[in-house]
Amino acid sequence: MKTITKSTCCYCGVGCGVLIESENGQIIGVQGDPDHPANFGRLCTKGLTLAQTAQSQTGRALYPELRLSRDAQRQRTDWDSALDTVAARFAGIVQQHGPDAVAFYVSGQLLTEDYYVFNKLAKGLIGTNNIDTNSRLCMSSSVTAYKLALGADGPPTCYEDLELADCVLLAGSNMAYAHPVLFRRLEAAKAARGAKWIVVDPRRTDTAALADLHLQIQPGTDVALFNGMLHHLIWEGLIAADYIAAHTEGFAALKALVRDYTPRMAAEICGILEADLIQAAELFGRSPASLSLYCMGLNQSAHGTDKNLALINLHLASQQIGRPGAGPFSLTGQPNAMGGREVGGMATMLAAHRDIQNPEHRAEVARFWGVERLSDIPGTPAVALFDALKSGQIKAVFIACTNPAHSMPDLNTVREALQTAEFVVLQEAFAHTDTAAYADVLLPASSWGEKVGTVTNSERRISRVRAAVAAPGEARHDWWIATEVARRMEMLLRPGLPTLFPYADPESVFNEHRALTVGRDLDIAGLSYALLEQAGPQQWPLPQGQLHGQARRYTDGVFATASGQAKFHATPYKPLAEPTNARYPFHLLTGRLRDQWHGMSRTGRLPQLFSHTPEPSLSMHPLDAERRGFKAGDLLRVSSKRGQLVLPLQISDEVSSGSVFAAMHWNGQFLNSGGINEASIGKVDGKSFQPELKHAAVRVEPAELP
Ligand code: SF4
């Protein structure tokens, strides 16, 4: 008999609702859920092919594997042996070297319930804040900027604002590829209402091609652009002086800074026309409602927080915030990057948006969990985590649902770290990722269509994820595996005490999580699996006694800072972490393709998803190719100070002369290298610790054929 199961797409942060059709234990079809408020039935090519990717079970991790020494091959084992080994090795290292000698590296693909258990295992049981996530590579600059400027993490906006905006500023976002269903909504709104689009991107992407104004800036010059736009708004009287006086702090210092960023000077830094910069400022400042949508182009930068802050400055100064159709809207990359932050699953935060540095916050969580204390030592964020693994400061790492040997910057360092580590655990649905080669223990995890829990999308909306079929082989759910490891470690680290992990199912984890949010900005005490069943996906906050979540924040001009006022930040423009030079003369830009997702562990299974872009390539401007005598299809070696890879040339005027572009998806399974991160740089933003994955200085030369 056919069954329909309501769930949520597992790819991007749009968080589209899906209807999974299954029969005889097989997923046989997937359609968009017409009732889901993110997509109203639409799906993109990735979502539409979810059934086929789920049916392809090739390469799934089906049973636990264990190796007894670094030189040996992993062998199949049973769950008890695998879990006991993980618990004993981790507990042993903690007892010998202290809690900060171990670390967890998890994923924005995990469900909120999975994340909660991992976070409690690290911070509550072991007593280390060394738990970070691949969301560090994705969202941490926008999180940090929201907190610094508005007082709390999370966007003040909602998807409905896409339809209500008169001016849309898309910065560092190829939304047509990375958030396709939202882009369709934006296109429909433009057709209906004539909203003007300004796209800020060093590449002429498919998003930029549809813009009213494309500002093709030099890589990394976003702060200069936003400061120049603000200069124009101030000196043309397009700022909201009353709003600034009543609801913000720090404007005088910002005004003094941007005095120097005349449109001419800013446009020179950005490599664009002064008239275009002025037109952008006029459109943004004079439109009744201006919305900015931004993503990795701002976040994945050694100055990512400043780029976000400079953009938020524009919104605050012109009161383009707290109103329908207006606000700074950071688009979430991963399906549950926001849910992971809600439970505090990062090295720099605690549960429910609490801070590690705040003694009251630590005491609240410790009391709630029933542990003596939480560590006040900040955890080690992603890039530093692998550096510490390489140096031996961290001795064991537990990786869940992510592939750092492909997705982290500077892969030579990451591979060396995984090789050097005393003990590596990998919890994964797929057995042959780049990272799996380094795992001492492989714990097979269930995947999309098999799991139960919740995720939070880009507009703070929590949706249910439901299972349509059983996991294959002996694969188990992520929350269950983390709970079982935790219970075994408890017996070694706090014998005789009642368990901290009394969970029977994901709902019991969710109920504990929501109780910990009471009184916080993301309070979801009023939300339950029953309410999600009855009323559908809901936005936070949703405190006790309310039946629906809140669409927009700060509509009353009261912000989440201690003073209630939003804070301007004077952000000077700083050059790229790695400028080009005579030896490495090209800007290497990275990005995503329309039909692929991350390291292609799912999308790489379907031939039809290669029809749009069949193979990896390096895009280069025709003038640069001609000057060097390169022809389309030539094999070129792309080298940075850290590593190299070989790609065929694609000649394209989408990139400016002086820049080259490569997609980030292809990995060791598809290339004779780990992919574009062989060349990328591990330099991080000093505030958010997010690495500069979007840019590196490289040289390009003909590759010798073997
Ligand atoms: Fe899935 Fe994102 Fe496509 Fe929606 S837009 S179907 S969430 S990949």
UniProtKB/TrEMBL annotation:
Stretches assigned to the 4Fe-4S Mo/W bis-MGD-type domain: 2-58
Domain of life: Bacteria
Cofactor(s) needed by this chain: [4Fe-4S] cluster; Mo-bis(molybdopterin guanine dinucleotide)
Record keyword tRNA processing present: no
MF-aspect GO terms: 4 iron, 4 sulfur cluster binding; metal ion binding; molybdopterin cofactor binding; oxidoreductase activity
GO BP annotations listed: cellular respiration; nitrate assimilation
Keywords: 4Fe-4S, Iron, Iron-sulfur, Metal-binding, Molybdenum, Nitrate assimilation, Oxidoreductase
One Gene Ontology cellular component: oxidoreductase complex
Keyword Metal-binding: yes
The family this protein is said to belong to: Belongs to the prokaryotic molybdopterin-containing oxidoreductase family. NasA/NapA/NarB subfamily.
Protein name, as recorded: Assimilatory nitrate reductase (NADH) alpha subunit apoprotein
Biological source species: Chitinimonas taiwanensis DSM 18899
Full protein: residues contained: 1 to 706 of 893
